[in-house]
Amino acid sequence: MTDSSRETERYRQGLQTRRSVLGDAHVDGALARETPFDRPFQQFITEGAWGTLWSRPGWTKRERSIVTIALLAALGHHEEVAMHVRATARTGATMDDICEALMHVAVYAGVPAANHAFKIAKAVYAEMDANTEDGGDKK
């Protein structure tokens, strides 16, 4: 991929939205780890997921965050669940929101999926609280 392919409006919007949800450190790390092999994939998710889906009008970032966590939990994508629970500090989704979403996962996708997602979310929230107590912020 050429640098000019990264200059599309959809890519720029996606990068802005991705940073607003996941934070600069996460996005900078992902871009730093990028190789020629996965560069097309990184462009795809930046334009598609972040530049199109997460940037659409109609739902707030909070609403998208809740739905995303529920879907990731239902599908067993544990690392992504953790990443998106961390992102709730930026999206405005509360612990109560995520609890309700995971309750839906239990009924519609199965108790084991929800059980594991609750375990992940509890660990992430504990980590976020510890970072706040140590003088950091939840972002």
Q: What key phrases describe this protein's structure?
A:
mainly alpha, single chain, AhpD-like, 2 domains, about 0% strand, about 140 residues
Descriptive overview:
With 139 residues, the protein is mainly alpha-helical. It has two domains: 9-57, no CATH class; 59-138, Up-down Bundle (AhpD-like). 76% of the residues lie in helices and 0% in strands. The protein contains seven helices and no strands. Helix 4 (61-75) packs antiparallel against helix 5 (78-91). It is globular. The mean pLDDT is 93. It is an enzyme of class 4 (lyase). This is 4-carboxymuconolactone decarboxylase. It comes from Pseudorhizobium flavum. InterPro entries: 4CMD/NDH-1_regulator, AhpD-like, CMD-like, Decarb_PcaC. Pfam families: CMD (PF02627).
Task: Give a concise summary.
With 139 residues, the protein is mainly alpha-helical.
How would you summarize the topology of this molecule?
Elements: H1 9-22, H2 24-33, H3 39-53, H4 61-75, H5 78-91, H6 95-108, H7 111-133
* Range of helix content: over 70%
Low-confidence stretches: none
Spell out the CATH superfamily of the largest domain: AhpD-like
How many domains?
A: 2
User: How big a fraction of the residues is strand?
Assistant: under 5%
* Major beta-sheet overview: none
Tally of separate helices: 7
Distance between the termini: 31 Å
GO molecular function, one term: 4-carboxymuconolactone decarboxylase activity
EC number: 4.1.1.44
Pfam families: CMD (PF02627)
Keywords: Lyase
